[in-house]
Amino acid sequence: MTLNSLDDDLTKRLRAALPDDILRDVEPRYLSEPRDSWPGQAGLVALPRSVDEVAAVVRVAGELRIGIIPYGGGTGLVSGQVMPEGPLPLVLSLERMNKVRAVFPEENVLIAEAGVILADVQAAAEEAGRLFPLSLASEGSCRVGGVLGTNAGGVNVLRYGNARDLCLGLEAVLPDGTIWNGLTRLRKDNTGYDLRNLLVGAEGTLGVITAATLKLVPVPAETGTALLHVASPAAALSLLSLARDQLGEGVSAFELMHRTGFEFLSEALPDLRQPWAQAPEWSVLIDVGLARGLDPQAALAELFEAAAEHELADDGLIAQSRGQAVDFWNMREHIPEANRKIGSIVSNDIALPLGEVAEFIDRAPGALAALGDFRINCFGHLGDGNLHYNIFPQRGATRADYAGVASDVKRVVHDLVQEMGGSFSAEHGVGRAKVGDLERYGDPARLAAMRAIKAALDPLGIMNPGAVLA
Amino acid sequence: MTLNSLDDDLTKRLRAALPDDILRDVEPRYLSEPRDSWPGQAGLVALPRSVDEVAAVVRVAGELRIGIIPYGGGTGLVSGQVMPEGPLPLVLSLERMNKVRAVFPEENVLIAEAGVILADVQAAAEEAGRLFPLSLASEGSCRVGGVLGTNAGGVNVLRYGNARDLCLGLEAVLPDGTIWNGLTRLRKDNTGYDLRNLLVGAEGTLGVITAATLKLVPVPAETGTALLHVASPAAALSLLSLARDQLGEGVSAFELMHRTGFEFLSEALPDLRQPWAQAPEWSVLIDVGLARGLDPQAALAELFEAAAEHELADDGLIAQSRGQAVDFWNMREHIPEANRKIGSIVSNDIALPLGEVAEFIDRAPGALAALGDFRINCFGHLGDGNLHYNIFPQRGATRADYAGVASDVKRVVHDLVQEMGGSFSAEHGVGRAKVGDLERYGDPARLAAMRAIKAALDPLGIMNPGAVLA
Prior knowledge:
The structure is a homodimer.
Chain A lengths: L7 H10 L5 E3 L18 E3 L4 H14 L3 E4 L18 E4 L6 E5 L4 E5 L4 H10 L2 E2 L12 H6 L7 H4 L6 E7 L5 E4 L12 H5 L8 E8 L1 E2 L3 E9 L2 H15 L3 E8 H10 L13 E9 L5 H14 L3 E6 L3 H21 L6 E3 L5 H13 L4 E8 L4 E8 L12 H14 L15 H7 L2 H14 L13
Parallel strand pairs in A: 2-4, 3-4
Antiparallel strand pairs in A: 1-2, 5-6, 6-10, 7-11, 8-9, 8-10, 12-14, 12-15, 13-14, 13-17, 16-18, 17-18
């Protein structure tokens, strides 16, 4: 089914069919993604204020055969929110649906509209004496709808799960313009197909999420942070296992970092405080949040002693104050910024079975060596088997020097990931940037089922055309 | 699309198309469900030994337009596994696919075929020093495929989630006979639509699960059990909140029981040991599993003291031994058996928002009073807002005396549940018994989407015909 391009005539008809103050000329901020690699195109943005207005937009777009790009905070990294080519679409931004509709502290539940910024959800939870544990670099600007549409991850997935795991219910507009009122606060509800999880992670291709029931959790009584030097990625995984044996669910985050990341920080962000003269080759940043009666510093010290005894870790720092913990995390959280300043050839957001992570880190540089001389910044959410495995020019060279090999680099990494049972997209999604990867690496039976579902729910193909499935 | 009835001619053609030892004449055990309310019909059962054989059965059934009833342990309570009427179907039992294919203790992962009995998964996890936390009354006979197909719950959902939350990947045969190889061990994988969660809970209507990657968890270092007398359901909920504030994720189970349950135990199972002369009106059974360094008995004692201070609980027992804990749980787990012996008029498996549970328990007897004089046994997984709200004849009366009002009783309960934002099926599913409830109470937009998905993935309608959707 071919869509129409949003020309002057269709713009007039859209304006005639919808209330005046919903449509605006698009601003540049809607047309670029953070890495700027895929500039989008669009002439109009719709800014509805209610689910009924969203439904009206979707219905009219269907009648006029105009594509819709659902837009959250615009922080996605795979160009799910920008459309570089094809019939000119309508951007549909949820930013005016930005209310926390209700908080139920005794139920550990919060209901937020799709346009609420993630940090505002966290703040509303905190005000109610609860924690909304989803935490990621873009939390100050990403919005609930995008977080769920892309099934966002971040640093606390190990303990609390990803966006999917923190969602109890949805309100959404389906591609035919009908409204699904699914804002349940229920923990159990076995009454048919899991439409919630189908929309979560569908990146706006099966409908528009307009509000969500989110799970809150109790605030851990005591928290602690440690930065430990580990002998190797394999040692880091053994340390994770040890930590979970000792502390159970108390391990909230477990991040692996290679020395390259700290070298990039020194090079690109020299004012950022680093707690060492010489960074260790491999280190892990561990957050624990414990129940009453346990002392996190003592628990982390005990963990370090056991790790040292097993020759997993030989040095490290246990944060002695909240400020020191913030410093440790500042380093971790500024690595992506340093990466952007250095300029990667290829960024990979991959997942591996935990037991394969060390072998992957061991094998990948050899597989890449034939393609050139690179710097590799490998860091990520080790507890989830999720590595940001980013490839950079050697010192003195530039991205342009590697222009010809970027796609081969990506291919070599993804082929190895596939061979080892991994995923070419752990937490960033498919968007438009990885449509080819999904076709190449996806299971054929699953892909056929996905296409059948897309055709069944969105027969006109108006929802985020070209994203996820070509 | 009308299906064919499995007559002699089709039986011959099935036998010709499949290896000899896959098809057998059906035994009575495949044709009844535990409550015996819906006797099924079938002439043949297929017993494949591999995913390829399952695929062959599904393909041939599709060619011959014969309905397939996927069959696990046969323990479902809503007749998803028995078909009382319509064209004679083929039962497809996964019982010969009963291998634990692999265990990855360091990854907290286990891969099991659909025919593995739940207790055998638990045992394999234990052997690897891990816990598979899904636990329910039928764990000695239910099988992995059925557990996932129905998204089973049980007593540890509060802490560890239901079957859905404990599944990382699936191998399945889709309705067109293609095999989806999705046995990933990944914690994060954002590469398109969530087919896993669509099949989980679809009750065999969208495909046949043949194997699953399951999540294991660390074994809590120390466990404890308490049986506390609470002032009311509202007090029980405040106690739950207090427990989670004090112990975080350490609260593994939180079961509410009304005195009626203990009276039924005395009446129907007089030999079962009960730890009191006079049962309290309301009590809760709490399991905790704590990290190293915490003493569960001390933690439970501290919890009780705080509860007493807030007038939430006035008496109780903290198990002093594993044997005593088993005794407490024995009572809870024998309530369903006592119910069966007493003979319910109607059994309801309902969920409510946590904040509405107490009001529901308060209002429901009044709503039912107009229909007759009942005994109500209300018990269940309070931490999940999941009540088994079962209605019995008064002492001296029998089920037959209430034959005329059973459907009205169910309607009154479900109407009130719906009004309060609840679910008519918390953990048992829809099967065939609750198809009418789903039509009555389901969101219309969601139902339309479900029908579109069913038609797209199973256009011939061969997969568990008549279950979930009429």
